[in-house]
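Q: What structure does this chain adopt?
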Amino acid sequence: MNGSGSDGKVLLVLLLAAAPAHAQSFHSGKCPQPPVQEDFDVTKYMGTWYEIEKLPAVFERGTCNQATYSLLPDGTVKVRNAERLSNGKRNAIEGVARVKKSSQPAILGVSFFKGVSDGPYWVLSTDYQSYSLVYSCTDYFLFHVDFAWILSRTRVLADDVISRLHDKLSSAGVNLDRLTASNQTDCEQSGA
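A:
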């Protein structure tokens, strides 16, 4: 989703119509350009990550949010995002992520629907084994919409690690007041 072309305009209209003001992060001006993970190794990143905190996203409605990444033979990444809805049912969507430039492997584009431009997926920081900090931002004319996720290999993450990741987001120009904790309780019992 780069905001160019008619598909970007249609998506913008849909987002504005569907998202209550408090459920999305709109800002004036262009997207910030935070530094990304140096020497990112996409192979080490594969596996399941659990959402610990996020900027609100209209497309996330449930709890027990998690993403599973697996490397495909052509070098792209299969993405499977899953959540538990309030009625107890599981909701999942699959897509494909691609490294945008081989010189910057931590900058990926993710696509879940044919005909819609890739959404940005920037890995700002990860140790591959316990945490990941992901940022996504799309420019639309005079404003931008951004998303951020703090992810963990387990359903909990140490407070000191979260604090360090908050510092990285803040230095990138992200408003931390909008971050919300993700609910990862009672997930195993529900099969999430």
